[in-house]
User: What shape does this take?
Amino acid sequence: MAKGYASTRTRTNLTSVIGTDATSGIVALSLTAAQSAALDAERYVYDVEITQTSTGTVTRVIEGLITVRPNVTT
Assistant: This one.
């Protein structure tokens, strides 16, 4: 996850978990509480890539925007 497509700033890695049945196509992405707290309230871009281990081929399967909003509940 980064602040822009050409961002040279530090990127944040998302933790990904593939469902129990890898053929289902379900992947969960998450951040730890510390990673979330370190983010500024603004828009970020992300992508998910799959690497074929046998060939090293990388395929981008999804990309999008994430909006981080400040916490209003304490």
About this structure: The mean pLDDT is 79. The chain has one domain: 15-67. The first strand starts at residue 15 and ends at 18. DSSP finds one helix and four strands in the chain.
